[in-house]
Design a protein that fits this description.
With 110 residues, the protein is mainly β. Helix content is 13%, strand content 33%. It has 2 helices and 8 strands. It has a 4-stranded antiparallel sheet, covered by helices on one side. Strands 1-2 form a two-stranded antiparallel sheet. Strand 1 (16-17) and strand 2 form a beta hairpin.
């Protein structure tokens, strides 16, 4: 019979199972969410990080999205939020941007 646990915090503090030393942690998708926003004009990832922090999204990580083998810069950014669910929209200044789910594409070989 399977048992469902809502609170997994007791399992995170288990130091060993039998003779095995273990370190338990939450899965990454249960701690963060990754989205894509844009398009932005002449904006750097540092400027966008500051704008998102000012908008109330603390602890975000922002990276420029590049496309293709030649790594052509796009006007979109990958944003890692420190929440388990993506916000539908982010408001930066007077603009509202839709947040879509970020899907990693395959990596090109050099």
């Amino acid at each position: 019979m399977k048992k469902h646990y809502e609170d997994v915090s007791p399992f995170l503090s288990i130091p060993e199972i039998g003779a095995w030393k273990v370190k338990c942690r939450l899965l990454a998708n249960q701690i963060i969410s990754v989205g894509a926003i844009g398009p932005f004009g002449d904006t750097s990832s540092q400027e966008l990080t500051g704008a998102l922090i000012d908008a109330g999204f603390g602890g975000v990580t922002v990276e420029q999205i590049y496309k293709g083998k030649d790594k052509i810069m796009t006007a979109f950014f990958k944003v890692v939020f420190n929440t388990t669910t993506l916000p539908q929209f982010v408001r930066i200044g007077y603009q509202q941007y839709r947040v879509s789910t970020y899907v990693e594409t395959r990596k090109y070989r050099n």
